[in-house]
Write a structure and sequence with these properties.
The complex is a heterodimer of chains A (about 180) and B (about 150). By secondary structure, chain A is of the alpha/beta class. Chain A has 2 domains: about 1-30; about 50-175, Glutaredoxin. Chain A has 6 helices and 7 strands, in the order H-H-E-E-E-H-E-H-E-H-E-E-H. Chain A has helices spanning about 1-5, 10-30, 80-95, 110-120, 135-140, 165-170; strands at about 50-55, 60, 70-75, 100-105, 125-130, 145-150, 155-160. In chain A, strands 5-4-3-6-7 form a 5-stranded mixed sheet. Chain A has a two-stranded antiparallel ribbon with strand order 1-2. The radius of gyration of chain A is 21 Å and the shape is elongated. The mean pLDDT of chain B is about 85. Chain B has 3 domains: about 1-35; about 35-110, Helicase, Ruva Protein, domain 3; about 110-150. Chain B has 5 helices and no strands. Chain B is mainly α and about 150 residues long. Chain B is about 70% helix and about 0% strand. The N and C termini of chain B lie far apart (about 90 Å). The radius of gyration of chain B is 28 Å and the shape is flat. Classes of the chains: A alpha/beta (about 180), B mainly alpha (about 150).
Amino acid sequence: MISRLKLFAPLIIFSVIAAVFFRLENRMVSGEYDPSMLPSALIGQPIPEFSLPALSTVRLLTNEDLPNQAYIINVWASWCISCRVEHAYLNALSQKGVAIIGLNYKDKPVDALQWLERLGNPYQFNLSDLKGKLALDLGVYGAPENYIVGADGIIRYRHVGILDDKVWRDKIVPLGLSW
Amino acid sequence: MRIRSQQYFLSFLLLVCSVLFVTTSFASSDAKNLLAFQSQEHRDRYYQLLDDIRCPKCQNQNLADSDAQIAYDLRDELYKLVQQDLTDDEIYRFMSGRYGNFVLYDPPLNAVTAILWLLPLSLFCLSIMIIALRYRFSESEEGHTDAD
């Protein structure tokens, strides 16, 4: 009897492995799991200290200038194609009253200002990070990236890639921040 | 005559190959000497660390291999850190503090990574147990047939 069962062992092992990979594949197709997305090392930590010029003026901005309410730090650049796709949704969010701070990442300020003029400006203000200094301290490895920060200045969530309605509903609303 | 020309061709080919080899080896040594270091020790540490830190963007490449923009930035940053005489541990902490343990090829043992050590160990123990059980089983069966 046992030796009969043994015959089926390869089939059973195959089925288990196939089920595991099938589930993984499904989660990747639905966008629930993306192996190229890294968890942020800064969740639960404050925004690193910075002193960067504003995009539109020469004034230096520091951590003091960040909002006292919950806000999003959106890492973007005019050379970033996905940022263009994302931009309309950011405009809609800011119309709803969500505070968004821009981190203009390794961009030419002239190009960035032109972009805002043409596509609309959803940002309370923009930090011009020409060398990617703050971006490196935040652990940014591409654009767009979005850091969700609570009113206490603590980073709650990081979304790598385009922020859209699905991400907002599934990932950001459950954080329970008051926007 | 035919053999002559073949010989010429072969020696020409050899010449071309050796010239290419010499020029490329010069080129690579040039690239390595572009950065100025305080000492040979600093230089060696820099190149060792480039191999030991993973690029966050091109996930199966280290910082030395990757052509991603972030890899360029991290190489610059690593150069500064080495020149500032930070220890290897401090540099690993700097990188993992920003990009997570993902960038370390030798991750620390914690609740999330424990499976990397425990799974092989438990599989090994399991296989030893199975072998031991089978051995005893077959032995007792033999004993049984002997008694018959």
